[in-house]
């Protein structure tokens, strides 16, 4: 565990909700069709079947638990990318071009979600705009005109990365996708679409973000011990920014769902699509690591 991970673990994080059968049903899509305003019926049951009817308020109460279950199913740190990056030969891991490819894909995915937050629906009242503004400030309104985007690029440049794109080239999704392919491009294209039609994708990403940040900090700290001390990681972990964003996203979304319960099924379904797309980002990054590993092995064999 890195120095930052240990520091973060000393903080008191928001409690993880207990997973219940109702949450599992919501996540699996069983709770989806309205019978009347205060009732939902399981998928496949006859319409207006009171025997299979569950109170809609109960399903909405279980929404944070359903998202926590989804986050555990798609927990980023379980993906091979992080352990394979940590295990990579140091010479290969410190290659500026290799690091540039890692930065490009990771920064593109992070940029896509940071930009997509500005298009979140259902949060247009003055009170909701105030809460949304705090998220914006945490990402794009840091002291001295700094942003998480700039912090991340500096963190990579400080370990010798040859960045593929300048910061300001991370712009519109289609423009950015000219420099991407595979799962990374798919994620970037999906982010704005999904974020703009429901709050579920935002919740899924926020709940999982601290896990992948710690995993990335730990993996690259094997090769660059100072990496986890970069402000991009250190400030987020010490101030528990990602945990706060996760709790806020769930709280705000639950308020919206309580007022508009018919949004529940689509919200959960979009969260699942986003989580699956994020898995693809780690798969894409792992492919970059595997290519670097094979090149290192071939170079070693040739010099033997």
Descriptive report:
The structure is a single chain. The protein has 304 residues and is mostly helical. The chain has one domain: Heme Oxygenase, Chain A (Up-down Bundle), CATH 1.20.910. Helices cover 66% and strands 4% of the residues. It is built from 15 helices and three strands. The chain has helices spanning 3-9, 21-28, 56-61, 63-73, 80-87, 90-93, 96-116, 126-140, 148-157, 173-177, 182-197, 200-221, 231-238, 241-259, 264-303, and strands at 31-36, 39-42, 53-55. Strands 1-2-3 form a three-stranded antiparallel sheet. Helix 5 packs parallel to helix 15 (264-303). It is globular, with a radius of gyration of 21 Å. Mean pLDDT is 85; it is low at 1-22, 29-45 and 47-54.
Structural class: mainly alpha
Strand content: under 5%
Measure the end-to-end span.
Answer: 35 Å
CATH class: Mainly Alpha
For the sheet with most strands, the description reads: 3 strands, antiparallel
The tally of strands reads: 3
The CATH architecture classification is Up-down Bundle
The radius of gyration computed from the alpha-carbon positions, rounded to a whole number of angstroms, is 21 Å
What general outline do the C-alpha atoms trace? globular
What characteristics describe this protein?
304 residues, Heme Oxygenase, Chain A, disordered N terminus, 3-stranded antiparallel beta sheet, single chain, mainly alpha, 66% helix
Question: What topology does this entry show?
Answer:
Elements: H1 3-9, H2 21-28, E1 31-36, E2 39-42, E3 53-55, H3 56-61, H4 63-73, H5 80-87, H6 90-93, H7 96-116, H8 126-140, H9 148-157, H10 173-177, H11 182-197, H12 200-221, H13 231-238, H14 241-259, H15 264-303
Antiparallel strand pairs: 1-2, 2-3
């Amino acid at each position: 565990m890195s120095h930052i991970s240990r520091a973060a673990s000393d903080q008191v994080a928001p409690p993880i909700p207990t997973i219940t059968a109702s949450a599992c049903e919501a996540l699996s899509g069983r709770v989806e069709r309205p019978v009347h305003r205060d009732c939902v019926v399981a998928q496949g049951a006859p319409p207006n079947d009171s025997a299979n009817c569950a109170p809609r308020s109960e399903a909405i109460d279980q929404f944070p638990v359903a998202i926590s279950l989804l986050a555990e199913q798609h927990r980023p740190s379980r993906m091979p990318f992080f352990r394979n990056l940590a295990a990579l030969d140091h010479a290969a891991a410190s290659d500026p071009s290799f690091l540039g490819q890692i930065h490009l894909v990771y920064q593109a995915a992070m940029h896509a979600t940071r930009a997509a937050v500005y298009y979140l629906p259902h949060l247009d009242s003055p009170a909701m705009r105030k809460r949304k503004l705090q998220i914006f400030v945490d990402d794009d309104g840091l002291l001295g005109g700094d942003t998480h985007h700039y912090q991340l690029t500096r963190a990579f440049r400080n370990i010798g990365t040859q960045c593929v794109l300048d910061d300001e080239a991370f712009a519109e999704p289609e423009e950015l996708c000219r420099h991407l392919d595979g799962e990374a491009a798919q994620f970037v294209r999906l982010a704005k679409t999904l974020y703009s039609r429901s709050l579920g994708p935002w919740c899924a990403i926020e709940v999982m973000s601290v896990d992948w940040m710690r995993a990335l900090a730990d993996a690259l700290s094997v090769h660059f011990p100072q990496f986890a001390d970069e402000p991009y990681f250190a400030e987020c972990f010490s101030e528990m920014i990602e945990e706060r964003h996760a709790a806020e996203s769930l709280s705000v979304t639950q308020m919206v769902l309580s007022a508009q319960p018919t949004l529940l099924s689509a919200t959960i379904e979009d969260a699942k699509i986003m989580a699956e797309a994020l898995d693809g980002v780690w798969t894409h990054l792992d492919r970059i690591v595997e290519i670097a590993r094979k090149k290192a092995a071939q170079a070693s064999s040739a010099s033997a």
